[in-house]
């Protein structure tokens, strides 16, 4: 999972754009964009107008359609078939002579038979079956300890098994945080005190998302929540419930996707939070 923090939050309307096309361009709900800009129906916009965008809105990649390449048809041509004339059959001179059997019995006198020696049967050698390879049991998954306020500068938002750790996994996909298994509706706690700078579901794939800014340029993210318990601008304390665990967005099971960032750069939470168990 990767969360992008786009720098711009204002879009200047270009010629031919509508509010709907701008909302599609930034993957934002059209009605939400109109409410954010205090617009009334029919939501008309003009070139040069400045539209406020949600804090995490980012421009979607535009697909470039290449013209189809036309391949000229290939016409198969067949070469003329040449049939060779048969060669004449010339009879050979056999120079036939009568076959004589005289003297053919010489050397054919019968000789006494030699008694064959019995052949002892060979006993097949039985080889021992190869020993089966011993496969060591899989190591149990690591888990996060329960959040205890005041224990460290940052604490884990929830206790549970680690589904996917920080960095590039065996599947080649990079994860900018840690995915933690959770029970549906379990409390998600703030890793440290700070200000809620975003609480919503406008970022595709992350479902209900909370971003908290902390002193020193740190930011924490909590994705795939079921319900949000805070709103933008709220001040929270370490260990305060900010959401409940769920499986919104592209989550395949109930979990919390937790990120720790220094500015815009993702940092491995395991290096700054209490040690994982297991």
Walk me through what this model shows.
The chain is mainly beta. Helices cover 5% and strands 24% of the residues. Strands 3, 4, 7, 8, 9, 10, 11, 12, 13, 14 and 15 form an eleven-stranded antiparallel β-sheet that branches. The radius of gyration is 41 Å and the shape is elongated.
β-strand number: 15
CATH architecture of the domain at 143-271: Distorted Sandwich
Low-confidence stretches: 70-78, 104-109
First-last Cα distance: 24 Å
Look at the helices and sheets and give the structural class: mainly beta
Please give the share of residues in helix.
Answer: under 10%
| Number of continuous helical runs | 2
**H/E element order:** EHHEEEEEEEEEEEEEE
Main sheet specs? 11 strands, antiparallel
Classify the beta-strand content into a percent band. Answer: 15-25%
As for the CATH topology of the domain at 143-271, it is Glucose Permease (Domain IIA)
Query: What is the subunit arrangement here?
Result: single chain
| Mean pLDDT figure | 79
Measured on Cα atoms, how large is the radius of gyration? 41 Å
The gross shape turns out to be: elongated
CATH class wording of the domain at 143-271:
Mainly Beta
The CATH homologous superfamily name of the domain at 143-271 equals Glucose Permease (Domain IIA)
């Amino acid at each position: 999972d990767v969360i992008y923090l786009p720098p711009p939050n204002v879009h200047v309307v270009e010629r031919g754009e509508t509010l709907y096309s701008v909302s599609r361009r930034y993957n934002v709900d059209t009605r939400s964009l109109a409410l954010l800009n205090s617009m009334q129906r029919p939501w008309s916009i003009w070139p040069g107008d400045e539209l406020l965008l949600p804090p995490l809105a980012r421009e979607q990649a535009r697909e470039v359609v290449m013209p189809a390449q036309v391949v000229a048809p290939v016409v198969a041509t067949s070469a003329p078939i040449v049939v060779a004339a048969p060669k004449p059959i010339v009879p050979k001179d056999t120079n036939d002579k009568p076959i004589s059997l005289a003297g053919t019995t010489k050397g054919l006198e019968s000789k006494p038979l030699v008694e064959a020696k019995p052949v002892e049967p060979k006993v097949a050698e039985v080889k021992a079956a190869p020993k089966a390879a011993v496969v060591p049991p899989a190591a149990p998954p690591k888990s996060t300890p329960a959040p205890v306020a005041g224990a460290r500068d940052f604490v884990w938002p929830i206790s549970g098994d680690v589904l996917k750790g920080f960095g590039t996994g065996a599947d080649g996909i990079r994860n900018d945080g840690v995915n933690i298994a959770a029970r549906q509706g379990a409390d998600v706690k703030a890793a440290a005190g700070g200000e809620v700078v975003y609480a919503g579901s406008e970022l595709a794939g992350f479902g209900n998302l909370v971003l908290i800014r902390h002193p020193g340029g740190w930011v924490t993210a909590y994705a795939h929540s079921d319900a949000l318990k805070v709103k933008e601008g709220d001040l929270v304390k370490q260990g305060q419930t900010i959401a409940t665990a769920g499986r919104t967005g592209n989550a395949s099971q109930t979990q919390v996707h937790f990120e720790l960032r220094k500015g815009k750069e993702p940092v491995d939470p395991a290096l700054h939070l209490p040690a994982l168990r297991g």
